[in-house]
Design a protein that fits this description.
- This protein is of the alpha/beta class and 334 residues long.
- It has 2 domains: 7-183, Rossmann fold (3-Layer(aba) Sandwich); 210-333, Rossmann fold, CATH 3.40.50.
- It is built from 9 helices and 15 strands.
- The protein has helices at residues 23-38, 52-60, 79-93, 104-117, 226-238, 247-251, 282-285, 304-308, 317-333; strands spanning 7-12, 40-48, 65-70, 97-101, 121-125, 127-130, 136-142, 147-151, 159-163, 180-183, 215-219, 242-245, 272-276, 293-298, 311-314.
- The strands form 3 sheets. A 7-stranded parallel beta sheet has the order 5-9-4-1-2-3-10, with helices on both faces. It has a 5-stranded parallel beta sheet with strand order 12-11-13-14-15. Strands 6-7-8 form a 3-stranded antiparallel beta sheet.
- Helix 3 (79-93) crosses helix 4 (104-117) and helix 5 (226-238) packs parallel to helix 9 (317-333).
- The radius of gyration is 22 Å and the shape is elongated.
- The chain starts with 6 loop residues before the first strand and ends with a helix.
- 41% of the residues are buried.
- Bound molecules: flavin-adenine dinucleotide.
- Flavin-adenine dinucleotide is lined by residues 144-146, 220-222, 224, 246-249, 260-265, 277-279, 281, 283-284, 297-300, 303, 316-317.
């Protein structure tokens, strides 16, 4: 390893998941922050066929360099091929860090890649930072999610992490941004895929994508029952937002799993977050790191959620909710 080489943070371009979540853009944004600290460049990897729109997208969202392989042989994803390609590129270019979205896809291939590269991998991270000695701090839930561990990879390179969608905010799209685009020919001798894609069909099940909502109305056990919880939908609709939930609520069947906010669920970043009847357990608040403004309603003024809030309303959740809905409807009519 030469001393003066340009350090690089690589972000795997998981564009096949783009419409479910924008984790690659979020990772590029975080990589830009981290790269400033360790004086590195941010490099996005894009493999596939007819990928120019992704080259433009990742450039507009902050990547300094794009490593692109555009070839019909990569039209569909193949674990073996992707692994072989990245392994070769890593051996040639020696990146400091590789970040991968913790999507179904990233969760499948990241551990295999780490094994091949004989390095560590922190899975499902909910935070990334840089230590005083320039190492990547990978914050990941541990001990069944009861604690957050800060992990560093001291000896091996690259430092690798998969990161939950919604953990970071993307940099707004800017068409004036420029990146160095390296178009690399497909390497020879890649393994034949062992799995052949016969057909591809997007799931018709409606994706619950609260990660991108700018207003979220979140409800907890303090809502009392399913009927009262359903009322949160009405407030969310009036404000053009979406509904989030705590784990007891999801377990009780008042909300679907896609609405779960927290360590075991979504990381949200709304401009305004309403929190009705939620105590503020760490596993829940772990998902609220990026909410701009929090309005909490709880009958217990000492609840953690009330202390975290910008506006805390002590009272019965359903009473406050019904009054808010009434007032909003009145104003809409006026
Ligand atoms: C490994 C692990 C992972 C977890 N992951 C998550 C996760 O991702 N997300 C998550 O949310 N939880 C998670 N949990 C659960 C978490 O620890 C808490 O149990 C949960 O967040 C509590 O939900 P809650 O606030 O709705 O309920 P409670 O803690 O029971 O709080 C209810 C609140 O409602 C208030 N209240 C009651 N009645 C009223 C009323 N009439 N009007 C107004 N306020 C009222 C109470 O004062 C109280 O503050 C996890 C736990 C573990 C162990």
């Amino acid at each position: 390893m030469t001393k003066n080489r340009q350090k690089s943070i690589w972000v795997f371009g998981d564009y096949r998941n783009y419409y479910q979540n924008r984790v690659t853009l979020q990772l590029i944004a975080r990589a830009v922050d981290l790269a400033k600290i360790i004086n590195a460049e941010v490099c996005a990897l894009i493999f596939g066929y007819e990928i120019d729109e992704w080259i433009m997208e990742y450039t507009a969202h902050g990547a300094d360099r794009i490593l692109a392989i555009d070839d019909p042989a990569l039209r569909s994803y193949s674990t073996e091929r992707y692994l072989a390609i990245i392994e070769k590129l890593v051996k040639q270019r020696d990146p400091e860090v590789i970040l991968i979205g913790a999507t179904d896809f990233g969760r499948e291939f990241a551990p295999r890649l780490a094994k091949r590269l004989q390095t560590g991998l922190s899975a499902d991270c909910v935070g990334l930072g840089i230590s005083e000695d320039g190492l990547l701090i990978q914050t990941a839930p541990s001990f069944g999610g009861n604690m957050l561990a800060e992990i560093v990879t001291e000896q091996h390179r690259p430092q690798m992490a998969t990161v939950r969608p919604g953990t970071f905010k993307e940099i707004p799209h800017d068409n004036n941004k420029k990146a160095i685009v390296e178009r690399i020919p497909l390497m020879k001798g890649l393994p034949k895929p062992r799995v052949r894609l016969v057909e591809y069909e997007r799931s018709v099940e409606k994706e619950h994508t609260i990660e991108n909502a700018s207003v979220i109305v979140c409800g907890g056990r303090g809502m009392g029952n399913k009927e009262k919880f359903k009322k949160l939908q009405e407030l969310a609709r009036l404000l053009g937002g979406d509904v989030g939930a705590t784990r007891p609520v999801v377990y009780a069947g008042w909300a679907d799993h896609g609405a779960l906010v927290g360590q075991a669920g979504k990381h949200i970043k709304p401009k305004i977050l309403f929190s009705f009847g939620i105590s503020g357990a760490i596993q829940h608040t772990a998902g609220l790191g990026e909410a701009d403004f929090i309005i909490a309603v709880n009958k217990n003024p000492q609840a953690t959620m009330m202390k975290m809030a910008d506006v805390a309303i002590a009272g019965d959740a359903s009473d406050v909710l019904n009054n808010l809905i009434k007032e909003l409807k009145k104003r809409i009519r006026e």
